[in-house]
Amino acid sequence: MVGPDCLYGYPTEAALVLARFRALYAIETEAATLPADERRALREREAVPLWESLGAWLETDTATRVLPTGKFGQALGYLRNHWDALRLYLSDGRMPIDNNDVEQLMRQIALGRKNWIFVGSVGAGERTADFFTLVASAVRNDLDVWAYLKDVLDRLLAGETDYHQLRPDVWRAQHPEAIRQYRVEERRDKADRKQARHKMRTA
User: Fold this and answer.
1) For 113-161, how does the pLDDT look when each residue is reduced to its tens digit (9 = 90+)?
2) For residues 8 and 18, what is the distance between their CA atoms, to the nearest angstrom?
3) Helix runs in the chain, H state only
4) Which long-range contacts (CB under 8 A, 24 or more apart) does 156-164 make?
5) With contact defined as beta carbons under 8 Å apart, do 74 and 68 qualify?
6) CB crowding 154-189: b at 16 or more within 10 Å, else e
7) Would you list the domain boundaries of the chain?
8) Model confidence over 79-114: pLDDT tens digits?
9) CA–CA separation, 169 vs 145, rounded Å?
């Protein structure tokens, strides 16, 4: 949306917008290991004022004079046209600031597409998609995938109908022994390194 290419023609204005987005992502790095409610509170405290400041700047004469045909003008137009959608993550600590993680997951679909041509039928394809969704959800919650799937499938076959209890995040809280701690530590280390890089850039 707003990248280094936008600096051409309006370097001062583009640098101002980029600085705000760097600050917003620095907040997300800090919030990465927090529970959802604490992440939302942090966003309310630190990210909301940045968005309000950015929104006020978009209404200034400086911003409105930017030509809409250039890359920076197009980026500002995107900001204005998708303002509410871009800020939606502020209302829910479970939501990410962007969809980068989802796009990375979609690459798995693209890589496996040729293998799934021979899934057999539409019904089999739907069941396969459901199964892959369960696996991906377990991975994202740092669970032992085999332990999670076996318990869920056993309970479903036994007649379990309380599907809320089978959600990976709910199941995770009930089965701490099935959490792959090394994945939690990897995620924490990655967040710490990312936060350190942000601090170096803003220093």
Assistant:
1) 777 777 778 888 888 888 888 888 898 888 999 999 999 999 999 999 9
2) 13
3) 11-31, 36-42, 48-58, 61-64, 71-81, 83-87, 100-112, 122-140, 145-157, 168-174, 181-202
4) none
5) yes
6) ebeeeeeeeeeebebeebbeeeeebbbeeeeeeeee
7) 4-97, 100-195
8) 999 999 999 999 999 999 998 877 777 777 777 777
9) 13
Rg of the chain, C-alpha, whole Å = 22
Distance in angstroms (rounded) separating the CA atoms of residues 191 and 203: 18
Tracing tokens 């509170």 back to the chain, one arrives at 41
Beta bridge partners of 179: 143
8 A C-beta contact, residue 189 and residue 164: no
- Token digits of residue 29: 């790095």
Question: What's the number of CA atoms in the CB half-sphere (13 Å) around residue 165?
Answer: 10
For 34-37, the CB contacts below 8 A with 24+ separation are 34/93, 35/93, 36/92, 36/93, 36/94, 37/93
Which residues are CB-contacts of 175 (< 8 A; sequence separation ≥ 6)?
A: 143, 147, 148, 151
- The structure tokens listed for 92 are 């829910």
> What count of residues does the chain have?
203
Q: Which of 48, 46, 44, 41 is nearest to 26 (CA)?
A: 46
Task: Identify the residue whose tokens are 């980026």.
Answer: 75
